[in-house]
């Protein structure tokens, strides 16, 4: 599996997404900010990566939070998981939100999210007057217990 990556001028000098360990599912992606970006508590920002991805047809790239940022600082991906579609050719920007109590400083080269390549199945959506019954039925939002 290969994902072609174009590096934009403000992404020059930063590493391409990379896996931290041999068993990692997500490849870390870095911030391509100039200087520092301060994310105040409750604030969100579309953080540039300086990368444009050519995701192969039949796949998506999921943008997921980094667990350390979430646990230690309350910083996470606002629309987790975000999706990069195979036909998108704009810059990958990561929507981060600070759910913590203190401002969080993002510096150039900081690892801000992880990217997971996943297969995509496009369904054929069919209108139906009735649906097959199940044991669960319409139970939702806690209907199977806490």
In short:
With 146 residues, the chain is mainly beta.
Helices and strands in order:
Blueprint lengths: L3 E4 L19 E4 L5 E4 L4 E11 L4 E6 L2 H7 L1 E3 L4 E3 L6 E8 L5 E4 L3 E9 L27
Antiparallel strand pairs: 1-4, 2-10, 3-9, 4-8, 5-7, 5-10, 6-8
Structure report:
The chain starts with a strand and ends in a 27-residue tail after the last strand. It has a single domain, classed as Distorted Sandwich (Deoxyuridine 5'-Triphosphate Nucleotidohydrolase, Chain A). The radius of gyration is 19 Å and the shape is globular. A four-stranded antiparallel beta sheet has the order 1-4-8-6. The chain has a four-stranded antiparallel beta sheet with strand order 2-10-5-7, with no helix packed on it. Strands 3-9 form a two-stranded antiparallel ribbon. With 146 residues, it is mainly beta. It is built from one helix and ten strands; from the N terminus they run E-E-E-E-E-H-E-E-E-E-E. The longest helix is centred in the middle third of the chain and has 7 residues, at 67-73. The chain has one helix spanning 67-73; strands at residues 4-7, 27-30, 36-39, 44-54, 59-64, 75-77, 82-84, 91-98, 104-107, 111-119.
């Amino acid at each position: 599996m290969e994902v072609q990556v174009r590096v934009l001028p403000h992404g020059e000098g930063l590493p391409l997404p990379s896996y931290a360990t041999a068993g990692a599912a997500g490849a870390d992606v870095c911030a391509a900010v100039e200087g520092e970006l301060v994310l105040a508590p409750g604030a969100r920002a579309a953080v540039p990566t300086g990368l444009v991805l050519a995701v192969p047809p039949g796949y998506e790239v999921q943008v997921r939070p980094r667990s350390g940022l979430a646990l230690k600082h309350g910083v996470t991906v606002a629309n987790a998981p975000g999706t990069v579609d195979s036909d998108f050719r704009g810059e990958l920007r990561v929507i981060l939100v600070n759910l913590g109590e203190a401002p969080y400083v993002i510096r150039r080269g900081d690892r801000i999210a992880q990217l997971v390549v996943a297969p995509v199945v496009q369904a054929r959506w069919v209108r139906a007057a009735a649906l097959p019954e199940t044991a669960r039925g319409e139970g939702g939002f806690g209907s199977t217990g806490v």
